[in-house]
Write a structure and sequence with these properties.
Elements: E1 12-13, E2 16-17, E3 24-25, E4 28-31, H1 41-46, H2 76-89, E5 98-103, H3 104-116, E6 125-129, H4 136-142, E7 149-154, E8 164-169, E9 188-193, E10 212-216, H5 217-220, E11 228-233, H6 236-250, H7 255-273, H8 280-300, E12 305-307, E13 313-315, E14 320-322, E15 328-333, H9 341-347, E16 350-351, E17 353-354, E18 364-368, H10 383-393
Parallel strand pairs: 4-16, 6-7, 6-8, 8-9, 9-10
Antiparallel strand pairs: 1-4, 2-3, 5-11, 10-11, 12-15, 13-14, 15-18, 17-18
Helix pairs in contact: 2-7, 3-6, 8-10
This protein binds pyridoxal-5'-phosphate.
Pyridoxal-5'-phosphate binds at residues 5, 35, 104-106, 134, 169, 173, 193, 195, 216, 218, 224, 229.
GO biological process, one term: amino acid metabolic process
Family: Belongs to the alliinase family.
Domain Alliinase C-terminal: 30-368
C-alpha cells in the first residue's frame, strides 16, 4: 500500500552528478515520508529475553480461539493484556466494551466503516475527517469502491444533511493536535482513531470512552511488524459486524501475532508497575522529548519554518504536567500559500509528505520522527535531527 504510512521505501545513498560541478554527489537522501515506528528498538533490545515466546509444532492450529469473546478469533491472553494495559495507563475505559482484534488498526478502520455504514440507503454514506487528516483515510474508504461508503473530504466544510461517518484522530496524524468531532449533525457516527493516545506522545487527560475506539500496537510499543490492532466497541451489533468483516476478509487474525502482542503488552504493563524495571513509557517519552527539543532548537534558529505548538497538560499517567511529543512534526513554511515546502526540501534531498496529502496546504509538510536511525550515519544521529541540520542551512 505505497503512499500510506506503510509504504516501505528506505533511505538510500544516492550518487549522482550535480549540474554545477559535474562531479559525483554522494550525499544521502533522507526519507522522512513514511512513518515506521522503530524508534523504541533500543528499549526492546534492553529487555533481552523477557519478551520471548515459543511455539511448538502442535500449538495454535485451529482457526478458533479458546476464549468466550464475541470476537471468536481473539486470543484470551491478548484480551486480558489489552484490558490490563488500558487500566494501568488510564487512557481508555474497557469495562463493558467489546474488543475486536484486527490485522493492524488499518484493517479495523475498514471493518468499522463496513459496520457503521447503513445498508438501506440509496447512496453511499459520506466519510469525512477534518484537515489535516491521516492520509490513509481517503484510500481506505474508497479503495474497493464498495458502494457502502464514500470519501467526502474535510469535515469542516461538510454540509450535506443525513448520515455521515467522521474519523477523529487524537492526537492527530500529521499535526499531533488533540481533536474532537467537528461536524454538527445528529446523524453522525464517529470512529476515534486513538493510535497515539499513549503517554510518550501526549498527556493522558481522561480515560477515553467513545463508541468506537481504535488502538494499535504499532504506535503504542513500536511493534508495527506484528500487525496487531484492537477496537474497543460499545455496541454489540457493531462489534459483531466488525468481527464478521474480519472473518470474511482473513478468517481471523494470526494467533502467533496475537500471542506475541499479548507478551509485549504484558511486559509494558509490568514495566509500569514494577519499580525494578525500566518504565517503557518513561523511556519512550524521554526519547521523544529529546528529539523534539533538538528539532525545536534548530527550527527556532531558522527563519523559514515554524512548528506546531502544544499546550502543557496534566497527565494522569505520569502525574505531572507535560507537553505533547508527536511521532510526526508538522512543519509550516513561513512563506505564502504558494510556497511548495515538500519540493523545497526535496531539492535538499529530504523526502517529506506534502500537506496536500493530508487535505492541507502546499506550504505544510509532515516529517516522520518515529524511525530509529539514519542508515549509514552515526547511530545517535537520527534521521530527524539530520534533516533538521539541513533545515538550518535553508
Ligand atoms: C492515525 C493512525 N492510525 C492508524 C495507523 C495504522 O496503524 P496499523 O499499523 O495498526 O495499521 C497509523 C499508521 O501510521 C496512523 O498514523
Amino acid at each position: 500500500m505505497c503512499g500510506t504510512d506503510g509504504c516501505l521505501v528506505k533511505c538510500s545513498s544516492v550518487s549522482c552528478a550535480t549540474p554545477e560541478n559535474d562531479t559525483k554527489d554522494t550525499s544521502t537522501t533522507i526519507n522522512l515520508d513514511h512513518g515506521d515506528p522503530t524508534m523504541y528498538e533500543s528499549y526492546w533490545r534492553k529487555m533481552g529475553n523477557k519478551c520471548d515466546i515459543t511455539f511448538n509444532g502442535d500449538d495454535s492450529l485451529s482457526y478458533f480461539s479458546s476464549g468466550k469473546s464475541l470476537c471468536w478469533f481473539l486470543e484470551s491472553k491478548l484480551e486480558e493484556q489489552i484490558k490490563r494495559l488500558h487500566n494501568v495507563v488510564e487512557n481508555a475505559i474497557v469495562d463493558d466494551y467489546y474488543i475486536v482484534v484486527g490485522t493492524g488498526s488499518s484493517q479495523l478502520m475498514q471493518a468499522a466503516l463496513y459496520a457503521l455504514s447503513p445498508t438501506d440507503q440509496l447512496e453511499p454514506i459520506s466519510v469525512v475527517s477534518a484537515t489535516p487528516f491521516y492520509s490513509s483515510y481517503p484510500e481506505v474508504t474508497d479503495f474497493v469502491k464498495s458502494g457502502l461508503h464514500k470519501w467526502a473530504g474535510d469535515a469542516r466544510t461538510f454540509e450535506k444533511n443525513g448520515p455521515f461517518i467522521e474519523f477523529i484522530t487524537s492526537p492527530n496524524n500529521p499535526d499531533g493536535v488533540i481533536r474532537e468531532p467537528v461536524v454538527n449533525g445528529n446523524q453522525g457516527k464517529l470512529i476515534y482513531d486513538l493510535a497515539y493516545y499513549w503517554p510518550q506522545y501526549t498527556a493522558i487527560t481522561s480515560p477515553a470512552n467513545h463508541d468506537v475506539m481504535l488502538f494499535t500496537i504499532s504506535k503504542c510499543t513500536g511493534h508495527a511488524g506484528s500487525r496487531i490492532g484492537w477496537a474497543l466497541v460499545k455496541d454489540k451489533e457493531v462489534a459483531k459486524k466488525m468481527t464478521k468483516f474480519i472473518e470474511i476478509s482473513t478468517i481471523g487474525v494470526s494467533k502467533e501475532a496475537q500471542l506475541r502482542a499479548a507478551k509485549i503488552l504484558e511486559v509494558v504493563s509490568d514495566s509500569c508497575l514494577d519499580p525494578k524495571m525500566e518504565n517503557f513509557f518513561e523511556y519512550s517519552q524521554s526519547l521523544m522529548s529529546d528529539r523534539w527539543k533538538r528539532l525545536r532548537q534548530v527550527v527556532m534558529a531558522n527563519d523559514f519554518f515554524v512548528l506546531q505548538k502544544y499546550p502543557f497538560q496534566y497527565c494522569l499517567f505520569t502525574k505531572d504536567f507535560c507537553e505533547s511529543h508527536p511521532a510526526f512534526a508538522w512543519l509550516i513554511c513561513k512563506g505564502g500559500e504558494e510556497e511548495d515546502c515538500q519540493k523545497l526540501l526535496k531539492e535538499h534531498k529530504i523526502h517529506t509528505r506534502s500537506g496536500r496529502r493530508f487535505g492541507s496546504d502546499l506550504r505544510n509538510v509532515r516529517i516522520n520522527g518515529d524511525t530509529s536511525y539514519f542508515a549509514g550515519a552515526e547511530k545517535k544521529d537520527d534521521m530527524w535531527v539530520h534533516a533538521a541540520y539541513v533545515v538550518r542551512i535553508l
